[in-house]
Specification:
By secondary structure, the protein is an alpha+beta fold. It has two domains: about 110 residues, Roll (Ubiquitin-like (UB roll)); about 325 residues, Glutamine synthetase/guanido kinase, catalytic domain (Creatine Kinase, Chain A, domain 2). The protein is built from 13 helices and 15 strands. The strands form two sheets. Strands 7, 8, 9, 10, 11, 12, 13, 14 and 15 form a nine-stranded mixed sheet that branches. Strands 1, 2, 3, 4, 5 and 6 form a six-stranded mixed sheet that branches. β5 and β6 form a beta hairpin. It is globular, with a radius of gyration of 21 Å. It starts with 11 loop residues before the first helix and ends with a helix. It binds glutamic acid and magnesium ion. The site of glutamic acid has 10 residues, from loops.
Length: about 475
């Protein structure tokens, strides 16, 4: 029998009364699977107390679901047996602005005896955040959300619109252009208002490069909170879009070969209230631990791609000179480096941070923050150091010049990235056998599913999955 996990806080009864007073009738409990899909169980809001005490049942089979809902069994998971309990995080119960009558909460997954499910991605992220805390680090993270918005056709979404021209955009203005904001001002106002009333602090909202593409950045938080936030942000954008007769795609490659949607991960390191990105007399302002942490991430990037770029579609996005960070290098304010150090102005309140540019929204954000922390801590443990930073676009250098500077291309297929993840000792130790095995099984299945597909087929099949 599942019991209430010790971490559960807050008064479920009081919360249920508040939801009732707000007219909330249903509560959506989400968790994100290894293919990056937010899966859900919804309960009547009046059952919140029971859910907080005893959890809500859900099969462990979803840990090996692919992005197209196929089951890809691993050594540990994938059969029809067993059941798990979803426990809502009561601290994150949020009334949804664009889905009247609904509230949302992220869930942690436990077995029926009340023990943590070994493949629970959210608890994995929390364990890694706790390791960082134990190493004396205060880590702040945040995700950028990019999406492409089209008009929603009356019927099912177009399966094979292979060019931007074939998709029906509600705006025609240029990249980063004010015209797009004017064309969609009601929609964009509703996006930012919905996020704000839901307690997500919006930092910026702007049109992006590709047709119909926009971006919102939100305030950083602790790693689990940042991962929760990106789920909430995405589902809110989806809901607001629908209310405007629009459809949002967060897919890595909406149109093959074009600029895609990234979901860059930002992180900053602090200790005892001091930024480790502002160390006096240190190279690039990085305190030794910050340098080692970032070097750990840089070194693990080939394996991390199997987490942050988890779909064959991810590799359509990863083109040189598309600001997607396809080379294993770092740079100071360099948008073509996979790891970008953002120093900002010396008096920026932000205190400086770094950005993993390569990741996209098909990634499970809990796995993304957890594995990045594991890689960074491994860098600290092994005393890793950063090579010289890359200046300019490595994509325009000749092969020989890149080799001379020691800049290598990150994996250009999911299969290659998965091989690297399989062999990565620090990441497999951090994930544990069950979660590591499930991730590998899903990646191998995604790779096999699209082995014979061309780029257009992959983009069309995955366009509306995230
Ligand atoms: N859309 C680009 C990507 O695929 C990123 C643009 C930017 O730097 O914000 O990641
Ligand atoms: Mg962007």
């Amino acid at each position: 029998m599942a019991s209430r996990p010790a971490e559960q806080r807050g008064d479920a009864r009081q919360l249920a009364a508040r939801l009732d007073a707000e007219g909330v009738r249903n509560l959506a409990l989400t968790w994100v699977d290894n293919a990056g899909i937010a899966r859900v169980k919804a309960i009547p809001a009046q059952r919140l107390v029971q859910a907080a005490e005893r959890g809500v049942g859900m099969s462990p089979v979803f840990d090996v679901f692919t992005s197209e809902d196929q089951i890809s069994p691993s050594e540990h998971l994938g059969g029809p047996d067993g059941d798990l309990r979803l426990f809502p995080d009561l601290d994150r119960v949020t009334t949804l602005a664009a889905q009247p009558g609904w509230a949302w909460a992220p869930a942690d997954r436990y077995d029926q005896l009340g023990l943590p499910h070994p493949a629970c991605q959210r608890q994995f992220a929390r364990r890694m955040a706790e390791r960082a805390t134990a190493a004396g680090l205060d880590l702040r993270t945040g995700f950028e959300t990019e999406w492409v918005v089209t008009r929603a056709p009356a019927g099912p979404p177009p399966a094979a619109a292979d060019t931007y021209e074939a998709l029906d955009y509600p705006c025609a203005g240029p990249a980063y252009g004010m015209t797009r904001v004017v064309e969609l001002s009601d929609y964009l106002r509703d996006v930012s208002e919905a996020l704000t009333v839901q307690g997500v602090e919006v930092l910026q909202l702007h049109p992006e490069y590709a047709p119909g593409q926009f971006e919102v950045t939100t305030a950083p938080g602790d790693p689990v909170r940042a991962a929760d936030d990106v789920v909430l942000v995405r589902e809110t954008i989806r809901a607001v879009s629908q209310r405007h007769g629009l459809r949002a795609s967060f897919a890595p490659s909406v149109v093959a070969g074009e600029v895609g949607n990234g979901c860059h991960l930002h992180l900053s390191l602090h200790r005892d209230g001091e930024s480790l990105h502002r160390a006096a007399d240190a190279e690039w302002g990085l305190a030794p631990d910050a340098q080692a942490f970032l070097a750990g991430i840089l070194g693990a990037l080939p394996a991390l791609l199997a987490i942050g770029c988890p779909s064959p579609a991810s590799y359509l996005r990863l083109q040189p000179s598309h600001w997607a960070g396809v080379y294993q290098c770092w740079g100071v304010e360099n948008r073509e480096a996979a790891l970008r150090l953002i120093t900002g102005a010396p008096d920026d309140l932000d205190g400086g941070h770094a950005e993993v540019k390569t990741f996209d929204a098909a990634a499970n954000p809990y796995l993304a923050v957890g594995t990045v922390i594991a890689a960074g801590l491994h860098g600290m443990e092994t005393g890793a150091s950063l090579p010289a930073p890359t200046v300019g676009d490595p994509g325009v250098l000749g092969v020989r010049e890149r080799a001379r500077r020691g800049i290598v291309r990150l994996p250009s297929t999911l299969g290659e990235a998965t091989d690297r993840l399989e062999k990565s000792a620090p990441l497999s130790e951090a994930l544990g056998d069950v979660l590591h095995g499930a991730v590998l099984a899903v990646r191998r299945a995604e790779e096999a599913r699209f082995a014979e597909s061309d780029a257009e087929e992959i983009a069309a099949a995955t366009r509306w999955r995230w």
